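Quick note —
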Amino acid sequence: MKINSSYNPFEKESFDSDTLTATEPPCILLVWNDEVNTFQWVIDTLIEICGHSKEQAEQCAMLIHHKGKYAVKKDSYDVLKPLCDAINDRHINSTIEELV
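Predicted structure written out below.
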């Protein structure tokens, strides 16, 4: 009989296993309509801060105007927070909401 000489009862065995990690719930970045900012200012802001194409920014601006608010981006809170701050710095009201 052959003895397995590599086995050591005092050594921890390692297993390949998936580790569950906590994930943040997705959030949305809402931009709110107002009577102060021009369409062009909102469009330029969405292009420069959110990385939207011209067409996407124009569509978002129309939806913001007609619906009163619109979710212009969906991501984690940590990604959206600096974008929200930058939009607010341009005197356009934006908020972050957690998707439920």
